[in-house]
Each structure stands twice: as C-alpha cells, then as structure tokens.
Specification:
Layout: E1 10-13, H1 17-29, E2 34-37
Parallel strand pairs: 1-2
Length: 46
C-alpha cells in the first residue's frame, strides 16, 4: 500500500478570518497551491 500526498505548497488549518486571509494571500499574492482544512461544517472561527 502506498500513501499519496496532495500536490500543494501549503496547508492552512482553520477557516476563520485569519485562515481565509492567509489562504487568499498565499494563493493570490504568492501564487502557491494551498489547501485549507476546517473542523466545523463551514467557514467561521471565533
């Protein structure tokens, strides 16, 4: 059995305000391939 690794440059944990801002900056300003993960059912945060 072999594990596969997603083809991304960065991973963002959490889709609150800071996570979404980081995701936006990494994708749009640095042109990185980014994947975000959120434990809850949608975007949010505290």
């Amino acid at each position: 059995m072999s594990a596969t690794t997603p083809d991304v440059d960065a991973v963002v944990i959490g889709a609150g305000f800071g996570g979404i801002d980081t995701l936006h900056k990494l994708r749009n300003e640095l042109s990185l391939r980014v994947q975000a993960f959120e434990k809850g059912g949608g975007v949010g945060g505290t």
